[in-house]
Amino acid sequence: MKQKSERRQSSGSTLIKHVLLGLIVFLALFCLYYGSVVAPYSPKLHDEDSTLDPFLGGFVDDSGYEFQPQNVDSLVPKSIPVCDMAYSELIPCLDRNLLYQLRLRPNLTLMEHYERHCPPQERRYNCLIPPPIGYKIPIRWPASRDEVWKANIPHTHLAQEKSDQHWMVVNGDKINFPGGGTHFHDGADKYIISIARMLKFPGEKLSNGGNVRTVLDVGCGVASFGAYLLSHDIIAMSLAPNDVHENQIQFALERGIPSALGVLGTKRLPYPSRSFELAHCSRCRINWLQRDGILLLELDRLLRPGGYFVYSSPEAYAQDPENRRVWNSMYGLLRRMCWRVVSKKDQTVIWAKPLSNSCYLKREPGTQPPLCSSDDSLDKAWNVSMRACITPYSPKMHKGKGSGLLPWPQRLNAPPPRLEEIGITAEEFQSDTSTWHFRVGEYWSLMKSVLQRNTLRNIMDMNSDTGGFAAALNDKDVWVMNVATVNNDSKMKIIYDRGLIGTVHDW
């Protein structure tokens, strides 16, 4: 009886196995048939007009149309080579070697060779930029303000060239930043206080109760001025070209300081009009008088009503004939632009831009430089040539005698006056702000379990809209580079009106 029972159980198990096997085969055949009926066409390997794309894993016919395989993995590149170590610091559109190889002839006196010149399609690199040899995880903010790993930015010639100015000091396997500059050897912190004193701001605070928030630092060096402004609730766009000291901006970003490559050459800087409360130039070696003062007129476009230009350079104090000549010419030009000297002390002079159009309207007919025409789009800043004309205010700003912005931090979440220029209502703006506060709160709660303290510092929003994402991160110890695409660049002025920073870019 026992043996018969065991045979029946064995027979039952075998039957179940066969049934399951048959079911699996049926389902497999059904899926194969169904997929062959409804799946879209994809070319076969032996199709004469198609070739395998080595990066995307798809197929490209002669028309350039790419056929993607029907699975998610196909969206991930199959193989991307690593660039040669010689390209570990490559900046494709600011590659000086490319200028010579393509036999371009930029005007060196106008700094055109430091502006963007992107390679043609066939010269673009499809490889991963390798880190320097010995690269280490960067030192975290706020310690990074004062020191970085030498291996991450293996350039020490600036430390030798600027040894008497306390820019940076090589100390073993680290580079230290004492906070000095060409015109503030005793440190950026003391220099910032001295500027506030010159302006007679309450409590020697350069922020002036939140009325000075965004600053443009031209020729910023290693960005120590911008670094020390952060503790004053001021954020600076520290700007320097990819010149013989190309690693300056690398140092700034490694330190965790907002900065960007750029130069006052022939094109407008990629920021809308009236973006900054203060512009700063400390021995930035810029010829402000060239081409009828076109570079000063670009600063005029970028400064808000009543904005300041802090200029620390020999022209402001040296008594030799050449520096006196430059000073007199510069002084005369800025007077014709209706700027006035607010303060002049030691090595620094501070000018202020007018609050309204009143001074412009009182100038003698034919006075140079002229006012820009009403059809000149003052906010267009991507690949637009500079214009040697004064940027007038709209009738509304002229009447209000100012930008109409609230002080920082109230302006961060308050609808700015220029919203109406881009067709967004205050309600839509506030709704977007609330949405991003909720989203970022959710993001942060999900990430905090895997992120150590101060892991994040430099953040980029690749399509920033009106800056809601960056505004929601304001209570975190990070800074956001907001990027507006060229077809959505009108919203960048809202970013700056909120007291944030960003740039226009063509991806």
UniProtKB/TrEMBL annotation:
Keywords: Glycoprotein, Membrane, Methyltransferase, Signal-anchor, Transferase, Transmembrane, Transmembrane helix. Its EC number is 2.1.1.-. GO terms for biological process: methylation. The keyword Cell membrane does not apply. InterPro entries: Put_SAM_MeTrfase, SAM-dependent_MTases_sf. It is an enzyme of class 2 (transferase). GO terms for cellular component: endosome; Golgi membrane; trans-Golgi network. The chain crosses the membrane at residues 20-41. It is found in: Golgi apparatus membrane; Membrane. The keyword Cytoplasm does not apply. It is a single-pass type II membrane protein. GO terms for molecular function: methyltransferase activity. Its main location: Golgi. Pfam families: Methyltransf_29 (PF03141). Belongs to the methyltransferase superfamily. This is Methyltransferase. It comes from Carnegiea gigantea. The lineage of its organism: Eukaryota, Viridiplantae, Streptophyta, Embryophyta, Tracheophyta.
